[in-house]
Amino acid sequence: MNGEALVKHAHQFALELPFTEQTWPFGPEYDVYRVGGKIFMIATTLRGKPLINLKADPQKALLHREIYKSIEPGYHMNKKHWITVYGGDDISPELVDDLITDSWHKVVDNLPKRDQKRFRPG
């Protein structure tokens, strides 16, 4: 999946997640996706390469970086808790969906209990 397809797919998938909002607090070149007011994904282009930044469990982040050459420590983010995903042959739409879903849940897990119940009823 190339970089442009990655960002397009990520945008569409992220907006399908419950209570997701897209904002531009850092300027029009940064698409910021939030749940409960907290960021779970940022899409932008760096030196001509489209990318997405996602929250990740530190252990999973290390594993992903070992397995996928197109996943690196989070660009301009906390390297322990964020990953950056670039387009590449090793990146599939299913992997992107899983990484975005994990990021969304990681953010919701850190919200107050009442918000967690609202965002994940049942």
From TrEMBL:
SUPFAM superfamilies for the chain: YjbR-like
GO terms of molecular function: DNA binding
Swiss-Prot/TrEMBL keywords: DNA-binding
Zinc recorded as keyword: no
PANTHER family to which the protein is assigned, alphabetical: CYTOPLASMIC PROTEIN (PTHR35145:SF1), CYTOPLASMIC PROTEIN-RELATED (PTHR35145)
NCBIfam families named among the record's database cross-references: PRK10250.1
Name by which UniProt lists this protein: MmcQ/YjbR family DNA-binding protein
Species the sequence originates in: Scandinavium lactucae
Taxonomic lineage from the root: Bacteria, Pseudomonadati, Pseudomonadota, Gammaproteobacteria, Enterobacterales
